[in-house]
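User: Quick sanity check before I run a bigger batch. Here is a single chain. Can you write out its predicted 3D structure?
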Amino acid sequence: MATDSAHEPLARSHQVERVLWFVFVLNLAVAAAKFFYGLASGSSAMQADGIHSVFDSLGNVIGLVGVALAAKPADPGHPYGHAKFETYGSMAIGVLLLVAAFEVGSGAVERLMSGTYTADVTAVSFVVMVATLAVNISVTLYERHRGRQLASQILKADAAHTLSDVFVSVGVLVSLGFVAAGFPLADPLMALVVTFFILLSALSVFRSALRTLSDHACIPAEQIQAVAGEVPGLREVHCIRTRGTEGEVYCDLHGLVDPSMTVLEAHRLGDRLEEAIKQRFPQVKEVLVHIEPYGYDDDGRELPSHS
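Assistant: Done. Predicted structure follows.
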């Protein structure tokens, strides 16, 4: 049983890595198509969208490193394991997005200040954008689905990235339409819209990562209480705390039992509670149950009866 548990994080990391490699290749293809055609046609919005996709690819690389580190087993220096390295990887992706926003936004402002609008819109421009948009939608749905299956913060963050690419690509298509209709100013203006969406992606990534790093509760206490209420012999639970990543949660609580119960009986009851919580919440890796006598305070004094 212990062997299976030891191999579980490694098996999960391999699955996450396969998804990231697949998405990495697709992101590179999409980025190359948008950036190089945008360069050839002079469209700053298409170039900006291409740069955004390049940073998505770099995010995949960071994700691969983070997942590899997170899969390392617990050691004396990291008794809770290395799962938060996946969260650190998400933070690094957020930093890359901020850099991308600066690059894209500064380029758009420069074009607006200089008054240089050189975009050349053809039918091929629309074909390239529609094709890459279809790829981005497929990648978003696939990565989000696998992120939920594997409870992976990296995959969910990357899916949010790609979803922002979808909205950005729609915006670029709109700008191409305006340029083709004789409004070239729409191209750098839409590049600024791209910048806004990149910043929104960064904010989403930081918000998710900070919830984990600040030990935000992973499971509502009420849900743990509901599970405990189904365990025969357990009078009450309180001081419920959960922490960790979405895929690896640690829980501790106090369980009140009949004061006449033997140590062995109380221990077995604690084990049943632990198993019940793990069955209801598979992401929970460890449950620490502190047994207390029901009807007594923390100093061992019997509480007044309300009967």
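The longest strand covers residues 234-245.

User: Great, the batch can go ahead then.
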